[in-house]
Amino acid sequence: MSNPYLTFDIDLDELDAIRAQLSATEHQLKAAYNRAISRTQQTMQKRSRKLLANSLGAKSAKRVQRRMQTFKLKRAGKNQLTDLKMWFGLNDVAPNNLKGRITAKQGEGATFSSPKLGSHKFNNGFVFTRGGQRYLFERFGKDKNKIRSVKIAVSERLKSRIEDESFHDLPEVFMSHFETDLKGRVKTGLNKDGW
Length: 195
Description:
By secondary structure, the chain is α+β, with helices and mostly antiparallel strands. The chain contains 5 helices and 9 strands; from the N terminus they run βαααββββββββαα. The strands form 3 sheets. It has a 3-stranded antiparallel beta sheet with strand order 1-3-2. Strands 4-5-6 form a 3-stranded antiparallel beta sheet, with no helix packed on it. Helix 2 (about 25-55) crosses helix 4. It is elongated, with a radius of gyration of 23 Å.
């Protein structure tokens, strides 16, 4: 199994040079590092969710954005700083949340067609309408007596696009957040002698 984390190099010497220039303590450096990780995580989530909604052709950005699993950036250990490692995942999406066409013919299953995601056929699919909204379900199991909501898998191509377009400058975003936070800590004396 491949490593699920994306790794980003952070120049620890550069962090220490900024600390020395600002006359910050080691405690302040670590606290600023961890705060910068949180801020960077928020920045990356915002960018990626916007790109995800546009790429999928979402009816509502909020609904589709919930399909993006939580980002995780590893924090500094008690005695050390590490490279940035980030994980994120994309959950499958229900067709009713996407711009596209849901069609069904008795005995022939159902199809979801989208200009962004192409055509997806479900041989045991059927459409259920509630409140003017069409939902795509499919029968499954040994006797096809079970029912589940249909989900469209998000392609690896989309994941790669998010990685390329949203994360290309992650180290620079991190450094900007780090320096801003460290300056604030030095100015206010926050975390000078401990966490």
